[in-house]
Amino acid sequence: AQRMEGEMGVVRFGEVEDIAAAVAFLAGPEASFFQGSLIDLDGGQTKTL
How far apart are CA 19 and CA 48, in angstroms? Predict the structure, then answer.
């Protein structure tokens, strides 16, 4: 876990609140312009792929 944490962009594991905030945004009117987008909620982990 420590090795993974060191490779992440935000240097911490995500919390439930991180995902909940993204879900609330996507469910709200502010996200009405999003159309078929993929959004990675991984703290920057995919930057290493």
Answer: 21
20, containing H or E segment: helix 16-27
Is 0.70 topped by the overall pTM? no
Nearest alpha carbon to residue 47 among 5, 8, 15, 19: 8
Position 39, amino acid: I
The C-alpha angle 33, 34, 37, rounded to 5 degrees, equals 160
Confidence category of residue 13, pLDDT binned at 50, 70, 90: confident
Residues 6+ apart with CB under 8 A from 19: 41
